[in-house]
Amino acid sequence: MSIKFNEIKELIEFVEKTGITEFRLETSGTKVVIKKEGPVMAASAAMPVPVQAAEIQETPVAAEATTAQEGDKLPENQVTINSPMVGTFYRAPSPEAEAFVQEGQIVEPGQELCIIEAMKLMNTIESDIRGRILKIMVENAQPVEYGQPLFLIEKL
Amino acid sequence: MANPRREYRPDRLYPWEVQKGLATRFTGHWIEYYAELPSTNRRARELATGPASPPEGLLVLAEKQTAGRGRLGRSWFSPAGTGIWMTLLLKPAFPPGELPKLTLLAAAAVARAVSAELELTPLIKWPNDLYLDNRKIAGILAETAGKAGAPWEYLLLGIGINVNQTAADFPGDLQEKAGSLRMSLGAPVDRITLLRRCLAVLEEEYVYARENGFARALAYCRQYSLILGRRVEVKSGDRCYRGKAVAIRDDGSLELLLDDGTGAAGIATGEVSFISPY
Question: What ipTM does this complex have?
Answer without folding.
Answer: 0.88
